[in-house]
Amino acid sequence: MNLFTEVIIGLILAGGLVYFGIHYFVVNRQTKRLSLKTQPIVDAATNYAVKQQKLIASDSTIISSYNAGVWGGRGVMAFEYHLDAVNVVKNDLPIVKSKLESSLNQFGIDNDLESVDSSKYFAITDMWLMETQLYFDVAYLRNRVTLEYVEDLKRLDE
Q1: Span 88-103, mean pLDDT?
Q2: Which CA distances in Å does 54 have to 8, 59, 88, 94?
Q3: pLDDT tens, 117-137?
Q4: Could you tell me which of 120, 101, 7 has the C-alpha nearest to residue 52?
Q5: Alpha-carbon torsion 105, 125, 96, 55, what sign?
Q6: How far apart are CA 25 and CA 8, in angstroms?
Q7: 80 and 134 Cβ atoms separated by less than 8 Å
Q8: Of 14, 21, 94, 158, which residue is least crowded by CB atoms under 10 Å?
Q9: Which among 67, 66, 79 is positioned nearest to 140, based on CA atoms?
Q10: CA 158, 88, 110 angle in degrees (round to 5)?
Q11: 53-64: per-residue pLDDT in tens?
């Protein structure tokens, strides 16, 4: 290979690295900003729903974290919650999930939240019990990307 070819290949590789580097930081910054703006809303809805369904003792806390980053979700607004559950057993999880999701969506209606799906504001995408700890993932259907994420997860479950 002559020097000219090596320089051209080097410039193409450098240009690709610069493009992907800039793209990565721009997209991640927007997702981080959106998740920081969205998480307090989802936290409030989850606190409301959990208390309404009496799933937690009055002195317990609900722990939340951004969850969609695991899936590479660019703009996906999904959060994981866990709490010390009161009177929840594994066989009750489908009923608990349905009631909790109903309460979350009622919070969305009562507070006139944004949603791309006019009939739903939130979706619980997963729920499991580990000893006395109840874990569940809540997606806020605020944007098309999150709605598609939820639909993809439903297809995986089928």
Answers
A1: 92
A2: 65, 12, 10, 16
A3: 778 999 999 999 998 889 999
A4: 101
A5: negative
A6: 26
A7: no
A8: 158
A9: 79
A10: 75
A11: 888 877 778 888
